[in-house]
Design goal:
mainly alpha
Amino acid sequence: MLDFVVCVGGIYVCFLTWSALQERVTTAAYGADHQRFRFTIVLNLLQAMAGSLVGFVYIRAIQRKPMLQMTKHRWKRFFQVALLNSTASPFGYMALRYINYPTMTLAKTCKMVPVMLMNKVLYRRHYPAYKYAVVAMITAGVSAFMLFKSNSKKGGIEAMENSLYGLFLVLINLAIDGAVNSTQDQVFAEDKEITGQHMMCLMNLCSSALMALWLLNPFNPELSSALTFLYSHPRALVDIGMFAVCGALGQCFVFYTLASFGSLTLTTVTVTRKFLTILISVFYNGHKLNPRQWSATGLVFSGISLDVYMKQMAKQAV
């Protein structure tokens, strides 16, 4: 139980910081010309490279273990996960052209549903009945919290922003994310020698290779444009470096949780982190919650409590 608590704390601390840095990198105006860093593939490449390096150092320097002996089948599986992972994010970025940020956040908090669905559809994985109740309670609670939030009327503009096409792109993004998590579960299940740190190091290595190939395409100007931007705005390089390192450290906790407790538990942790972030923001900024939002909050924490209680009971029964 202690290792789970440490993982949750590490994920919360690292990714709350990472989120703040991500917002700064993607929205800050750098230099006298007030330019923004808009090169998302380059940003993802640097994050993947940092994750692979930190994973390698963790295995060799901290665990003092040899690297995994790679076979053709293992390379195939790692590239499969990396390709899915690299494919998901562009759909999220495209969706934001058609829907607003609250709608995207609302959809992302329901990620546990596609994770469970993809595990069942792709790999015929079964869950105990209480897991379905936990997923339903947390998803319904977070969704209700967001839907009951007071917001201003924007008429036709809001309707346009929340177009069905944008929501369709979000669904594709979530479905691919679900496929990533379920495939990672399957890799761990079929090959017991693979640890969370191996997944972190090698999946990020494969992702780096795929994104580097895309950026080195002579018809793609993103890499040269990004290098020109960073040369002209060195402060952005500092922010991006901190962003990549913080994300890589957070991945240590993420992949340990994934290997030890499974993708559904990991998704539960990340979804509740987003929810707690909303609550912290509400209290920090002095906002008030209406009774329906308090009910939704209670539903989320009831789901979390049920999950923890059932896991503890299962351990005592062994």
